[in-house]
Amino acid sequence: MSTIDFNQVYSKYANRLFHIAFSYTHDRLWAEDIVQEAFLKVLKKIDTIEDINKLSAWLSTITARTAIDFLRSEKRNRWMTVDSAQMEPIMYHKTNGMDTEEMAGIRLFQEDLDRSMESLSKEFQEVLTLKVKYGLKENEIARLLGLKSATVKTRLYRARKQLKMAFA
């Protein structure tokens, strides 16, 4: 439909879509990236919208799905380890106070952990990644993946148990 002006759509819905993206990521920069990506998708397909009254819902759906895609695919370098003694240097380290040898040790440990994560089943990887890398709560993970909260807790428990066995 050629009667839709993309600039008007952007100015009208950008803030709303940002809040949707932020509700998934809890990170302002990621939310901004997701909104930009969603609007790129919209720009490519804006001519396909048949009912202008459904534009708001269409934009919201695209943004929510883009946010979920980002959460599933984005790779961050920080991983939480199984052992709290090993966890603290990785999660809370300050590179300006560490020497090169310590940083290299942490990097090698992160690589070992990444390889161990690959041995887990897809279901375990998914919940553990959302919990550890993105800091989501069990109920948020359950809502995001369409699972029961108890299922998420069970998968997290089993995934951690398998990682402990891999590092033992």
TrEMBL record:
Keywords: DNA-binding, Sigma factor, Transcription, Transcription regulation. It comes from the Bacteria. Residues 111-163 form the RNA polymerase sigma factor 70 region 4 type domain. GO terms for molecular function: DNA binding; sigma factor activity. Signal peptide: none annotated. Residues 10-76 form the RNA polymerase sigma-70 region domain. Pfam families: Sigma70_r2, Sigma70_r4_2. One of its GO terms (biological process) is DNA-templated transcription initiation. NCBIfam families: sigma70-ECF. Belongs to the sigma-70 factor family. ECF subfamily. This is RNA polymerase sigma factor.
